[in-house]
Amino acid sequence: MDYVANLIKFRNDLSDLSTLSIPRWLGTTSSSYCELHGFGDASEKAIGAVIYLRVTSPSNLTRVTPVMAKTKVARLKETSIPRLELCAAVLLVKLMSHVQSFLSLPDSIPIHLWSDSENTFDWIRGPPLRWKTYISNRVSEIQRVLPEVAWHHFPGADNPANCASRGLTLIRLVHHLLWWQGLVWLARPELLWPNLTGARDPYVDREERVITHSALVDHETPWRLLTQYSSLTKLLRITALYLQFMDRLRRKHFERPPCHPTMTYLKFALQKLIRHVQQKTFPKDIIKVQRQLLVSKSSPLLKLLPFLDSNGLLRLGGRLTHAVLDYEERCPYILPKDSPLTTLIVRNGHLFMLHGGPQLILSYLMRRYWILSCRTAVKSVLSRCVICARHRANPCSQVMNPLPSFRVNPPVRPFAAARLDYAETIWMRTTKGRGHKAYKGYIAIFVRCATRAVHLEVVSDYSAEGFIAAYKRFSARQGVSHTLYSDKGTNFVGADRQLQELFSEAAAESDKIVRHITDNHTTWKFNPPAAPHFGGLWEAAVKSLKHHLRRVVGDTTLTFEEIYTFLTQVEACLNSRPIQSLKDDPSDLVALTPGHFLLCSPIYTIPEPSVLEARLTPRERWKLITQMFQTFWKRWSTEYIHELQTRYKWQKPNTPFKIGELVLILQEKISPTKWPLTRVVQVHPGSDGQIRSVTVKTTTGLPQRAVVKIVSLPTSVPESTEPASA
Fold this sequence. Notes:
36% of the residues lie in helices and 16% in strands. The chain is of the alpha/beta class and 726 residues long. Strands 10, 11, 12, 13, 14 and 15 form a six-stranded mixed β-sheet that branches. It has a five-stranded mixed β-sheet with strand order 3-2-1-4-5. Strands 19-18-17-16-20 form a five-stranded antiparallel β-sheet, with no helix packed on it. Helix 10 packs across helix 11 (263-281) and helix 15 packs across helix 16. The protein is flat, with a radius of gyration of 47 Å.
């Protein structure tokens, strides 16, 4: 109800605005003297600022006229009054800058800003970095907008900005002399203006930034730096600046030190770091050398005959004492191989020699340092160099996967699990004779997984209909396969785009094929892209097919009937090859071939005597056939399967890939330095738990690649390319 009553009262008071008049002339002339005065104030509800123009005529008559005022509602978040007073000062400064530019007054006109807050007055006079963030930001804004303005402190009861921050009714506003004429003393000479210098408010100190000055001498500081930097240049520079600063404190030289250390301090820093590493690694040996005793027989320094130089550093006492070499080359520093300082020295030498090999780096390091097991230390650093890893471009490998069940178990029937590939492009003619157009044909090869039996089909084109027709002919003669394996489209290197789309999971042609084979209860599985070793079984069959095709057909163009007849003969040859090495046993006349599992005998065999006259009962005849099949599978499981036991390559498991790891994708057509840098987003382990393929994130998508197409990068911190000069 109070809100409604106040609103009605405010509406009724609007009628008093007709009695309010504001003079448009500010009283300025060409010969008058002008000054701008601004006042700011804050309350819990609002902050306000008002600006007056003080004009003094040549006859010493002074006139004060309001120019502009502005108010803002206080923040909803609870804020102290001193901070609100500072916000009012910021509002006053921005308003004064606007008025100064709007009135086109000269820059030489005096500007006086008034505040009745002692805290605001003290904060503005101090440097911004002295105060906390809230105060510092607003003081910086005030000093930036009007840097040369004069600030004054005066009693708060006479502040005309109180009218703006606390509010006035319309009746009071019309007759409020303090608002329309300003302060009485503002019309008097400047000597009569108030100048308050009261006691300092303790609240000001509460807003002061806490700055702690400590002079803690930590003798371990330089040695902690060994593990904080990956560049010897930066480590020596930081350590030299630290030692230079400590030296100036001891000598009580407090002038500003130079920004860059001198060569003397760089050399001193290196000696300090070497002394720390030697004392930490060879403490007992140093004590014995100081006492002029021989080091123990178990010490790695026994063969080096070490001695201490004038700086207390271990040096090599070799046999080149009389050689015409520098002292550091004849007696280099002794360093361990597993120290952080040694790693930085080797890394710096690697960069200084432009990413040279181990022998080149060793020849550079031995001029100044004698590193125990130096070759091991150098190779360790080289193996973690990212630049060298990109140029080496060694792809990853994974331990060979155990054979799947369909390779080692006898299937229910032939070609129950089959592998599919497009083997070769051939040219065919519509019919014999001259003048007939030749067109492209293709060979689809189906491989039986368990026995390596081969089935060849001619495909007329790259369409889904052509492949489905070939698959129907294969299924009609060999039976429907419950699982069909093939490569993805990106595996067909050098093939036409149509073939790649045919075997791509996202292509429309592939959808037709998948729909057809799914209707026949067949599952189609794809290998990862660019991973031909996943299909080594059918790749070997493709190689054998090309052997016969190129040597017999060559460039001859055959008809469909001729090429189909020839492929059946090639199929017979491939199914007659031994699936294991022939033995030297003279009693073993027949080698086990894929044809035994298709026709119970090799496809190409020598004619045998007829058994039609033999007296065999039907039961014995079927027993004989069953015995033949069992004999074949027994030989297959006892002679052939055991040959697949050994892993001929990829015998060591690779380090597991981590999600988010940076890797390179191997691409044969471009230089290794331009291989795309990607990040692993998903790993795909095989049946044995080893990671066989990974999904990486590139600029074009999320492709899946086998680990043999991935180059792992070192996990060390990237090296600096600036070699040390010390």
